[in-house]
TrEMBL record:
Domain NADP-dependent oxidoreductase: 22-318
Keywords: Oxidoreductase
Stored PANTHER family: AFLATOXIN B1 ALDEHYDE REDUCTASE (PTHR43625), ALDO-KETO REDUCTASE YAKC [NADP(+)] (PTHR43625:SF40)
Protein name, UniProt field: Aldo/keto reductase
Organism: Nocardioides pocheonensis
Length: 337
């Protein structure tokens, strides 16, 4: 696959940010999904930029801290090409231990300065609160984030896994450009209330795990996960025991539909997510994560998979909303707050 021009999407209307229609989640280049290799991650980011995938997503907690450093190295000399997103709020110690969720204004300021230093940049294009700290009024957290915009350290604000009530309160303090939440054929609960709210307020959607943490690609099974992969050790119930077998049976349905479309199952599942922007009338830019060039190139191929209304309906009939077995996380207490 050679250099190409990827279509663009606009996230948000009150504070719009133009990004590549498909982004790149960089988390797995440093942690959580088996063995990580910095040089391979940097190679993948360079290939993404060459292909026109310019919307890069990281967070201070990935590594922890090392993923921002990796992304910073990869974009050195190419900063002007990139729409750079990172996150704060899931606080960890340097040894990887977890501290908790932190939305205090003083922490917001310190976390931003630390991210800027690790990334080696003078501003962040999209700065998310990674998880909502219910012990701190959202108005105080977003107020501190708004100060970062005023000083030029941050250009646009985002939330992740926030509830409708939190989104509304946050948006009243400062325009929210994008909500990052899990969204895929396997996870569609935000269609009930959150998507209509985003449309109403003019907020874009950045779906993470649009391939169901890799399961929708058809390449994941009980035998393919490394021992240190977080999907293999109980963090994600959908990958455990009978739930995994039931969910892989659903993936087989996608595989059969993909054969008819002459594409990979992951490309078909990703094309469904990409189609939700026009369908719902809002900017949608999914960020499938990968640490390998060949999977990046496969994901980019999803942009060439055209779906009509009948295709969308068949996919949604193949995987009904209530068919997936298991919660998204073993601990769901920090999502949709």
């Amino acid at each position: 696959m050679t250099e190409t021009t990827i279509e663009r999407r606009t996230l948000g209307t009150a504070a719009p940010l133009e990004v590549s229609a498909l982004g790149l989640g960089c988390m797995g280049m440093s942690e959580f999904y088996g063995t990580a290799d910095e040089s391979t991650g940097i190679e993948t980011i360079h290939r993404a930029l060459d292909l026109g995938v310019t919307f890069l997503d990281t967070a201070d907690m990935y590594g922890p801290f090392t993923n921002e450093q990796l992304v910073g190295k990869a974009i050195s000399g190419r900063r002007d090409e990139v729409q750079l997103a990172t996150k704060f709020g899931n606080e960890r110690n340097p040894d990887g231990s977890w501290v908790g969720i932190n939305g205090r204004p003083d922490y917001v300021r310190r976390a931003c300065d630390a991210s800027l230093e690790r990334l080696g940049v003078d501003h962040i294009d999209l700065y998310y609160q990674h998880r909502v700290d219910t012990s701190v009024p959202i108005e105080e957290t977003v107020g501190a984030m708004a100060e970062l915009v005023a000083t030029g350290k941050v250009r646009h604000l985002g939330l992740s896994e926030a509830s409708v009530a939190t989104i509304r309160r946050a948006h009243a303090v400062h325009p929210i450009t994008a909500l990052q939440s899990e969204y895929s054929l396997f996870t569609r609960d935000l269609e009930d209330e959150i998507l209509p709210t985003l449309v109403e307020l003019g907020i874009g959607l950045v779906p993470y795990s649009p391939l169901g943490r890799g399961m929708l690609t058809g390449a994941v099974s009980r035998d393919t996960l490394e021992a240190d992969d977080s999907r293999a050790v109980g963090r994600f119930p959908r990958f455990q025991g009978d739930a995994l077998e039931a969910n892989l049976a659903l993936v087989e349905r996608i595989t059969k539909l993909a054969e008819r479309k002459e594409c990979a199952p992951g490309q078909l599942a990703l094309a469904w997510v990409l189609a939700q922007g026009p369908r719902h009338g809002l900017g949608v830019a999914p960020i499938p994560g990968t640490k390998r060039v060949r999977y990046l190139e496969e994901n980019v191929g999803a942009l060439d998979v055209a779906l009509d209304d009948q295709d969308v309906a068949e996919l949604e009939q193949a995987i009904p909303r209530d068919a997936v077995v298991g919660d998204r996380y073993a601990d769901m207490s920090s999502v949709n707050r």
